[in-house]
Amino acid sequence: MNLISLTPLDLGLAALLILALAALSLWLSLGLERTLLVSAARMTLQLWLVGLVLKVLFNNATIGWIALGAGFMILVAGREVMARQQRRFAGVWGYGLGTLALAVPSLTIILLALLVLVRPAPWYEPQYAIPMFGMLLGNSMTGVAVGLDRLTQTAWQQRSVIEARLLLGQTWDQAISDLRHEAARAGMIPIINSMAAAGVVSLPGMMTGQILAGSPPTEAVKYQILIMFLIAANTGFAALGGVWLGSRRLFDERERLRLDRLKNR
């Protein structure tokens, strides 16, 4: 089965649905029409540019270009983690903490997937490396952002409780352990829900794309199971790592709570 090509007219007709939704938002005074239209335009531009970049990468499949593309994706994902937090860490920590939490597990797991599980030839084949890495980062980005946001918001709201625990002789780790557990749990819940609903409530994106491209459904299922396992593991490790780094940053070397290291968005 050949993939059916879409024309600009097809995309334009689909865009009318977004315009209709924006008009409804304006009519109901929801105040979302501008954000909706800007997001749709940004998405279209970004995906178009990504398509052009991937075309270049596919035609110049060298490990240097693949590494450059992966590095750029990590930097953008780190920026998105920071942008989604109501109270972020000040200075370089606001950007670096989320980026580090994403980079370490994502690079480790994508190398495991390419070298041990999928084994394309060459192992850095962009057809596999870039889409899989993007899926890992995209889902993990949400987990880290939610976990850090929950951590900093709760620490700000419960600062008196944390300081009371410190006065009672608890270490920084003990004083914030409950908050850290809740923040890590919040970061992992979305991917757990996605796994629970996959195949029953929704058909995941990778599987749908492969089926539309003509792959046998059973083969598409295998790849989707693999990528869901990788995404879940990556999201869990990234969220746990980000929350731990964030909780440590909330205290100084004398184990004092330092909420002055946070700033409002």
TrEMBL record:
Subcellular localization(s) per the UniProt record: Membrane
GO CC, alphabetical: plasma membrane
Superkingdom assignment: Bacteria
Mode of membrane association: Multi-pass membrane protein
Claim: Transferase is one of the keywords in the record: no
Keywords linked to the UniProt accession: Membrane, Transmembrane, Transmembrane helix
Sequence intervals crossing the membrane: 47-77, 89-116, 128-148, 191-213, 225-246
Protein family: Belongs to the UPF0014 family.
Record's protein name: Iron export ABC transporter permease subunit FetB
Organism in which the protein naturally occurs: Acidihalobacter ferrooxydans
